[in-house]
Amino acid sequence: DAKTTQPNSMESNEEEPVHLPCNHSTISGTDYIHWYRQLPSQGPEYVIHGLTSNVNNRMASLAIAEDRKSSTLILHRATLRDAAVYYCILRGGGADGLTFGKGTHLIIQP
Amino acid sequence: DGGITQSPKYLFRKEGQNVTLSCEQNLNHDAMYWYRQDPGQGLRLIYYSQIVNDFQKGDIAEGYSVSREKKESFPLTVTSAQKNPTAFYLCASSTHQGTSYEQYFGPGTRLTVT
Question: What pLDDT was estimated at residue A1?
């Protein structure tokens, strides 16, 4: 699986937007970009995924660079419940397992 | 409610004993997965199964065994051959439909071996 690079940690204030970056310069043409998040002592939770176009859902938005070598997860208005570790994962087609890095630890200040 | 259940939440065992972790899903998903997480690290894939009676080794399968006799169940046995079994174990499932293959995770079992 192609590798992703994320900052170890980021800090933001409650009710402000958060932009979480991910670099994936070796992405292949068939790799989807997936984001999961993990709250303390819980299992990860799917957030969003995309291939080429920007994507929106009720949790977040995913902005994908035109060359697909980077992407940004956008939380439009952070709450304290968004404090978690966020993982950016590349996934080819199929139901194989996911390859997790260390992710970005997002800290939300009240 | 549909979802994945793992039991127990906490498990304590003595070194040298085999232990089996339970994972059940009622999502009608074909694929199921086992991951291990150590403190401060991401998840690592142990085993996965895309269909009943079939499974594949993940990145760290040594010292573990699985079975998939029913679609809804995928138990993991941590054997005495696993050198560092103390960890947080997570089970997941996913459908083969569409392109997402979004994985749904259980709450995890925290295993401590002393």
Answer: 55
